[in-house]
Each structure stands twice: as C-alpha cells, then as structure tokens.
C-alpha cells in the first residue's frame, strides 16, 4: 500500500512538473509569437504606406502624360508658326536693312 501511495504521489508530482514546464514553454512561445506579430504588423504598415505612395504616382502619370502631350503640341504649333514668321521677319529685316543702307548714302 505504501508503494502504491508513493507511486501515485510520484506520478502526481511528475504530472505537475510536466504541466508547469508545458505552461512556461507556452508562455515563451506566446511572447515570441506576439513579438514576431508586432514586427510583421509594423512591416505591413510600412509596405502599405509605400504602396499608397506608389498608387499616388500611378494616378499622377496619366495627368503628366496629358500635360506633356499638350506641351509637345504647343511646341509643334510654335515651330510651324515660327517658320512662317521667321521668313516674314527675315524679309522685313532685309527690307529695313536696304532702307537704312539707302538712307545712309
């Protein structure tokens, strides 16, 4: 009977030891998981911020492309107008030069 009580007490103490060890191990695992989850959340927020910045650039690109097209069209019109006006200005300057040359004599 003594050996039976002794075996039961020993088994109970062993069970208590296993339970305590398991609970402490689970606490350490939980702490590690919480820390890793916090790091993951922080990185996810940073990534979301970068994606938001990228999306704002993506939204601005079509607007910039349209402005560039408008500027290119204005430059082309200016070049075409300038070709005509340069010829006119050249002829006018040539005429002015002849007039000045004639008046100086």
Say how many strands there are. Answer: 0
Q: What are the segments in which pLDDT stays under 50 over at least 5 consecutive residues?
A: none
**Largest sheet, described in full?**
none
Query: What structural category do the secondary elements indicate?
Result: mainly alpha
What is the alpha-carbon Rg in Å? 44 Å
Helical content class: over 70%
Which keywords apply here?
single chain; 105 residues; mainly alpha
Detailed description of the structure:
The longest helix is centred in the middle third of the chain and has 103 residues, at 2-104. It contains 1 helix and no strands. By secondary structure, it is mainly α. The protein is rod-shaped. The mean pLDDT is 83.
Secondary structure blueprint with pairings:
Elements: H1 2-104
Short summary:
This protein is mainly alpha-helical and 105 residues long. It has one helix at 2-104.
């Amino acid at each position: 009977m003594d050996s039976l009580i002794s075996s039961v007490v020993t088994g109970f103490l062993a069970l208590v030891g296993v339970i305590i060890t398991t609970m402490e191990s689970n606490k350490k695992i939980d702490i590690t998981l919480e820390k890793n989850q916090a790091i993951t959340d922080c990185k996810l927020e940073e990534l979301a911020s970068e994606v938001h910045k990228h999306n704002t650039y993506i939204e601005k690109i079509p607007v910039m492309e349209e402005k560039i097209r408008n500027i290119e069209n204005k430059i082309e019109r200016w070049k075409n107008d300038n070709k005509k006006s340069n010829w006119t200005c050249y002829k006018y300057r040539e005429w002015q030069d002849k007039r000045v040359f004639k008046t100086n004599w």
